[in-house]
Amino acid sequence: MGCTHCVKRCPTEAIRVRDGKARIIKERCIDCGECIRVCPHHAKKAISDPLSAMDHYRYKIALPAPSLYGQFNNLEDTDILLTALEHMGFDMVYEVSRAAELVSSATRHLMKDPRYSRRPIISSACPAVLRLIRVRFPGLLPNVLPLHPPVEVAARFAKAEAHAATGIPVEEMGAVFISPCPAKVTAIKMPLGAEQSAVDCVVAISEIYPPLLAQLKELQKTEDLTRSGRTGIRWSVSGGEAAATLNERYLAADGIENVINVLEDLEDEKFQNLDFVELNACSAGCVGGVLTVENPYIAEAKIKHLTQYRPVSCNHVGPGVPQNVQWEAPVEYQPVLQLGQDVKSSMQMLSRIKKIEKHFCGLDCGSCGAPSCRALAEDVAKGFSTEEACIFVVRDQLQSMASEIEKISRLLPRLAPAEGKAHQEEKAQPAAPGAADGKNKEEQP
């Protein structure tokens, strides 16, 4: 439609509008879903697996995110929802909130480990935030908690538990994660901290909601399937993970703009006496993901009501941190925002960008298809666009052309009035009499 809502809101300036179509620079995209959230025309959609993908596996494991509990009205017991998932065709249901409690327990162990004395420790649970740190705040990578997110831990523990109970090979099992956001889809397809994810496919909450709601209406009897407490389920709302560390010196922020502000302040060492920082790219936490169906703040209220009388926690790790909970590989800086190959070429490119930027008005209107004048200058310097993409540059060029045309028209020679009159009289002279008489004679009948 030609609008630039997504361009202006992208935290990594990964979107450009070219020829009337928004295009994503995949190297810069962190899959936060902000472009999907703000688009008034629903032009963007997140890619996830269809529900039928679970039919490819012999043994099907459902991994419901704790944010799923906040999507339904009058849900007083999580067993109802988990039983309905089994009736949909899943052989096993393993709560992600159960694994969240294990990650919280491992976090408490690591915070006491002298090897992780650098403070504050930043949560690695939100994949969008982790990717944002990797491309924009590489200096904070040593502060990131080196633990897998709960969904990855849930898939690993669920497959091990199912294999021990049934003897079915792990290769024939399919772990299906019911996800609230597209960042978790990317975290499964291209995991950080691991070579390959144990999750096999990801289904959006918005896709499973209608058939699950129909199953809930037909449910006659429930089974005792819940194995998680209050802390695990409240991971789905902002502050839930931080509260589970049982440490009062923590900070929790949600919403991508607030996350960026906190990361900038952390980089500048403005925060003192902080032990743990929880950051969620979505407003209100995972309940605010773009693949959910309920208002995030209403879902948050439902989660708090649901967990009001639940036990604090039902799962703990042993004296040490299990190996399959920790990263197998470090997360390294990805220089997608770097201007050149080295410092010298980057400085040269930066100097050129500043010169080009001076030609623009500095309004950051987005009419050029770039989020700011500085971003357009960078595109011009890299050869991806031209200065004429700016409507104000084109306007100035048209005004300059109009001034030149007016100046030239003033310098053109003009005919004197007397010469013009003589010229008109010469053109008005009648033809010779003979010629006229002859013509008249021929025309007579």
Walk me through what this model shows.
The protein is α/β, with parallel strands linked by helices. It has helices spanning 5-9, 34-38, 78-87, 96-112, 127-136, 150-166, 182-189, 205-218, 230-233, 240-243, 256-267, 296-306, 343-357, 373-382, 391-411, 417-428, 433-443, and strands at residues 15-18, 21-24, 59-64, 92-93, 121-122, 173-179, 201-204, 250-254, 276-280. The chain has a 4-stranded parallel sheet, sandwiched between helices. It has a 3-stranded parallel sheet with strand order 5-9-8. A two-stranded antiparallel sheet has the order 1-2. Helix 4 packs across helix 6 (150-166) and helix 13 (343-357) packs across helix 14. The protein starts with a helix and ends with a helix. Residues 438-445 have low confidence and may be disordered.
Layout of SSEs?
Layout lengths: L4 H5 L5 E4 L2 E4 L9 H5 L20 E6 L13 H10 L4 E2 L2 H17 L8 E2 L4 H10 L13 H17 L6 E7 L2 H8 L11 E4 H14 L11 H4 L6 H4 L6 E5 L1 H12 L8 E5 L15 H11 L36 H15 L15 H10 L8 H21 L5 H12 L4 H11 L2
Parallel strand pairs: 3-4, 3-6, 5-9, 6-7, 8-9
Antiparallel strand pairs: 1-2
Helix pairs in contact: 4-6, 13-14
Judged by helices, strands and strand pairing, the structural class is alpha/beta
- Give the helix proportion (percent range): 40-55%
**So what's the overall shape?**
elongated
- Could you give the count of β-strands? 9
Amount of beta strand: 5-15%
Tell me the Rg in angstroms: 33 Å
Average pLDDT level: 89
Indicate the low-confidence ranges by residue numbers: 438-445
Number of helices: 17
Order of strands across the main sheet = 4-3-6-7
Distance separating the two termini: 71 Å
Give helix and strand order, one letter per element, not per position. HEEHEHEHEHHEHEHHHEHEHHHHHH
Give me the oligomer status: single chain
Q: Describe the sheet with the most strands.
A: 4 strands, parallel
